[in-house]
Design goal:
The chain has twelve helices and no strands. The protein is mainly alpha-helical and 254 residues long. Helix 3 runs antiparallel to helix 4 and helix 5 packs antiparallel against helix 10. It is globular. The mean pLDDT is 95.
């Protein structure tokens, strides 16, 4: 087959699934540490605080994509993602459920929402993802969401591992993850069908694969930052520091 010949739908799907198997952030050492009980309380706090910024920007990203979908049917399907995260009423939705987790870990909501203590790696990666979805083709924007093909299994591992190893979390504080697997499966099925139907040329198919690779890198980069800052204990200036850590020397804090 010519290198320029389009892949079949089955070949493209297989390549996308292989990309996830090789690049999804469940392979990152921070996640292995978190799920196996190796993380300290402060590391879990840092993960939840930084991950909130990602969660809070997802509906903003999705609203951007919504404006770029020309089909009424496609917009109707995509709109469900915004409702899942923002909720349809006060006190509902994934963002609210994530705040319950940060509540339980001792963070004031105003502090979490302000995102003043998050890592530069978190901010740059998440903002790059929003910009990607704003400026690339709608096909690429949709394809970048295909990490949801792999998230339900990882969520199951995360919940069971954290409940088994950490007495400071509960099913109530991890309620965000109870809702996500069926939502993610629904969204991934739609996004995969959209990509398989609309990536007709080999060039478009390569864009779809690259978009998924980019999104995997966005997620991986956030965990790189957490590892350096809170496992190796080399946080950059200005970010949240656990109260239990020794105080910085005056000249370092300045």
């Amino acid at each position: 087959m010519s290198e320029d010949a389009p892949l079949s739908a089955a070949e493209l799907e297989a390549r996308l699934r292989r990309t996830g198997a090789e690049r999804y952030h469940n392979l990152h050492r921070f996640h292995r540490r978190l799920h196996s009980g190796g993380s300290s309380y402060e590391e879990v706090q840092a993960w939840a605080l930084n991950r909130y910024y990602y969660q809070s920007m997802i509906p903003i990203k999705d609203a951007t994509v919504l404006t770029r979908l020309s089909s009424t049917e496609d917009r109707r399907e995509w709109r469900k993602r915004i409702e899942d995260h923002d909720g349809v009423a006060a006190g509902d939705g994934g963002v609210e459920r994530w705040l319950r987790l940060t509540d339980s870990l001792g963070f004031p909501r105003d502090y979490v929402r302000a995102a003043e203590g998050i890592l530069p790696a978190t901010r740059f990666a998440v903002d790059a993802y929003v910009e990607f979805c704003r400026t690339r083709t709608p096909l690429e924007a949709v394809a970048s969401s295909l990490t949801e093909l792999f998230s339900p299994t990882v969520i199951g591992e995360r919940v069971s591992g954290m409940l088994a190893h950490y007495d400071f979390v509960s099913r109530e504080t991890l309620a965000y993850f109870a809702q996500r697997p069926p939502q993610a499966r629904r969204d991934a099925e739609w996004a995969l069908a959209f990509c398989l139907a609309n990536a007709r040329t080999r060039a478009q198919q390569e864009l779809v694969v690259r978009a998924l690779e980019f999104k995997c890198a966005v997620l991986w980069t956030q965990l790189d930052g957490l590892w350096a800052a809170y496992v190796e204990r080399e946080p950059p200036p200005g970010v949240w520091r656990p109260a239990s850590w020794p105080e910085l020397p005056r000249e370092a804090a300045a």
